[in-house]
Amino acid sequence: MIYKLPQQKLLRWIALFLVGTFLQFLFYIPTPVLSQNSNSCSNITIPLTSEEQTYARAAWQYFVKNYQPATGFTNSTGGYPSGTLWDMGNYLMALNAARWLNLTDQTDFDSRLNKFLTTLNSLKLFEDALPNKVYNAATAQMVDYGNNPLERGIGWSALDVGRILAAFDVIRTCHPQYNDWLKGIIAKWQVARSLKDGQLFGATVLSDNKTLLVQEGRLGYEEYGARGYQLWGFSAPKAIALEPFKLVEINGVQIPVDSRDFQSTNANNYVVSESYILDGIEFGLQGELADFAARVLDVQKRRFDTTGQLTAVTEDNIDQAPYFLYNTVYANGTNWATITDANQPYPQFRSLSTKAAFGWRYLFPDNAYAQKVFDAVKDLRSPDDSGYYAGIYEESKQPNKALTGNTNGLILEILYYKARGNHPLITSTSASVSTSKPSENASPTIPANQSNSTVITPIAIPANQPNPNVTTLIATSKPTEVAVAPIPPVDSPQPSSNLKLDRSLTAVERRYAEAAWRYFQANYHSKSGLIDDRSDFKGATLWGLGDYLAALHAARSLDTITPKEFDQRTRHLLGALTKLPLFAGELPSRSYDTRSLQPIDYGGNPVPEGNGWSALDLGRMLAALYNLKSCHPEYTAAVDKIVLDWSYLRVVREGILSSATVTKEQDGRYLTRVNPETRLGYEEYAARAFQLWGFNLERSAVGGEYQTASVEGLKVPIQRHRTDTNSKNQYTVSNPFVLYALEFGLDPKMRSLFEPIFQAQAERYRRTGTLTASATTLIDRKPYNVHSTITGERESWVALGDDGKPVPKGRLVSTAVAFAYNALLPENKYSQQLLQGTTDLYNPLVGFYEGFYETTGKTAVGFTSSTNSMILQSLLYNVTNRQPLIRPITTMKSLWWQTLTKGNSGRGLPNSAIQQIKLTSDSSGSYWVSDSENTHLVTGTK
């Protein structure tokens, strides 16, 4: 007999099934994984000595003996089942170090990490936002610092969040199979709640049970915590900056001290060793932080020279009340203060710190004093093999027998850092850490909070530009922001673009579109209407603004933004374009401050007269403006008025595009020079854009003879053969070719260039297993712009700076180019591989990252309008039946064409009111082509 469910119960079961299915997609559900070894992490270049192996084994025993099998956590101090998020970060760093130092095997590592992440993923969060400040390590319950269970919790610590985010980055780099699990955990946290006004904010519960957000971090730890956030795309620019600080002379050394002291902020401004040690071994000490660290070590040496007391101070647990103290170089107006968190003094318990001594010894291996303090603690192990003691009391000379995960975890990190050849654990491509003795008379940079200070920030040259006489430093004095009025409302706004979609975005594609658009929300200047070319620089080129206009069109077409937002932003941008000062009264300058609209050089320095123009940038803007007229004709009159204000007499000469540069002569005069453009791919793209407006540019448009080089057995173009200039193309990258293909389609001549460029990258992947999407991209260190070439300076697969010099380990896999290749060649297996490798490289708040490093797999932290615009355009291309994104104008009666018909404009306009190219189709697809392009492409091998 078949049992028949009542109809009501059947419907209820179906509903429950559907809800469960929905929840599976809504929430990330982790599953245990096994790590895959990362070559960079397992690369032990300087193996530990037998003595160092003893140190490492002793430190690891702390975690073996303090492991909580029910949760996978470890005790923060010996035998005490409690732990903060900072302690959890210590354990993850120790676990990773133990694996590569062969203190544990892969099976044990996976077992420990799977259990840890399972518990971490299920933790109850404070206000359902972020992990509580402290948990019971044995039960994973929220507790207070006395380990008493609390249903609500006591708040969160932003610095602790930063610590574990740094540890997460090490785990995902060294054990990439855990990456998705870690992303899922972070996705459940409301990290943005701990960020406010560019700073880190913790949460605390007041006596009336209300939650108070409190700014966290002082000089040293604040920057370290912000770096952890930055690794996952969460920006805290004020926190990562060094200001505000002052210099305080202690024992003859000028020590940097946070200006925010306990008296004024109720928070300690202590100077300790650990923050600099952590920064050094994890990120690599660079710039002012390297100088600060050297000073902090040097002042401790000078105290020893004066008093005979070995000194290595930092915060530590102690083995008696009050159980935790900050042993400082300076705190709240007092030199060599030893205080509690409440600023209560305990000078009798000042101690020589074991972890600080280890840190200084391995950060500065040639420093005699660092060796001396290390020798004093290197054997300070507990007799029952429970790990290293925290230190030695100065006054009693007795051991501080506190056993902690902080001390032992940091020792393991430090020894792993040494075994890797003193390479930072996180920023493996960062500058080498200084190991020289600190100068006795170091002269620091003047802090920015002093009256005569100027903060200097490195700036990249825009990716589409040559680099004539570029200043690469910018003074960050804030310019006056101007308010630009949008153009008046258009007569007949359209509900959407005239572009017809072949299908709707999938749910995943929509998520990517929304993520890419976030860049243009996060970097929008509401007063001027402009967008920054890159997130860390308040400046824009005409190329970048063309990217923005193309992104606006794509976002509107994809229904990522509303018609109202599109109209408001478009009218504001067009209004700003009418206000840009023109170089020599002819054309927009190469770059502008996005706040003041005043011309700047590529270093961000004001140049009131401008610094020339770029024909390439002008072409990018003309392409975007043409498409705005075509797909949104209500803006035609405003667009035509803008472009008719410009003079083209010197940018289009004898069928060739030319750009202007300004050079300073020895006698102080500034001279303008106009030279033909030769950037391979960029010249061809810009020429097509000019042809849309009727300009005759047959000698710059794709065609003629190209020299090639053999790369992976393919003839890859390296430059156009020409006699009109001695300038040479320095490199071949993908960016301009994929942009050309997306917007103009692949005409036969361009296809002959495009295909070997793509095929060479696919062949390199087949041969080496290295994903390759060669492009010009931004990175967050010198030289800031990197050209990951297919061929450059007569060498294949070299990374070059703008100066043509190689950038070791600088090659990136470009996120934008990966998206574009997949859109253009969706059936190609290699383009599918590229997309799989880059689709999740975004921060939901600020857009897609530039890409990831080929050698390490680490994300290249940086955000640009070009990358996010190309991703939006690629997504639009996917849903328009892969038709060229630039659509033909259907009427030639607008002001532009009427002006051309009149002739003799005195502005270098085209001689006839005829487009030089047309959209056509054949069996290979649709593309724009000139009627005169009826000759075959000629290539010659170099």
Give the overall average pLDDT.
86
Shape descriptor reads elongated
Q: Strand-residue fraction?
A: 15-25%
Oligomer: single chain
Radius of gyration: 31 Å
Describe this structure in words.
The protein is an alpha+beta fold and 942 residues long. The chain contains 27 helices and 43 strands. It is elongated and about 95 Å long. Helix 4 runs parallel beside helix 6 and helix 17 runs parallel beside helix 26. The longest helix has 21 residues, at 287-307. The strands form 17 sheets. Strands 5, 6, 7 and 8 form a four-stranded antiparallel β-sheet that branches. Strand 6 (195-196) and strand 7 (199-205) form a beta hairpin. 52% of the residues are buried. It is 36% helix and 16% strand.
Essential attributes:
3-stranded antiparallel sheet; 43 strands; 942 residues; alpha+beta
Report a brief summary of the structure.
With 942 residues, the chain is α+β, with helices and mostly antiparallel strands. The protein is elongated.
Secondary structure layout:
Layout: H1 7-26, H2 39-42, H3 50-65, E1 82-84, H4 85-100, H5 106-122, E2 125-126, E3 130-131, E4 134-136, E5 155-156, H6 158-174, H7 179-188, E6 195-196, E7 199-205, E8 211-215, H8 221-231, H9 237-240, E9 245-250, E10 253-258, H10 262-265, H11 274-282, H12 287-307, E11 315-317, E12 324-327, E13 330-331, E14 334-335, E15 338-339, E16 351-353, H13 354-363, H14 368-377, E17 389-393, E18 399-403, H15 405-419, E19 456-458, E20 473-475, H16 507-522, E21 539-540, H17 542-557, H18 563-579, E22 582-583, E23 587-588, E24 592-593, H19 615-631, H20 636-644, E25 652-653, E26 656-664, E27 670-676, H21 682-692, E28 705-711, E29 714-720, E30 731-732, H22 735-744, H23 748-768, E31 776-778, E32 785-788, E33 791-792, E34 795-796, E35 799-800, E36 812-814, H24 815-824, H25 829-838, E37 842-843, E38 847-848, E39 851-853, E40 859-860, H26 865-878, H27 895-902, E41 917-922, E42 925-930, E43 938-941
Parallel strand pairs: 28-43
Antiparallel strand pairs: 1-4, 2-3, 5-7, 6-7, 7-8, 9-10, 11-12, 12-15, 13-14, 16-17, 17-18, 19-20, 21-24, 22-23, 25-26, 26-27, 28-29, 30-33, 31-32, 32-35, 33-34, 36-39, 37-38, 39-40, 41-42
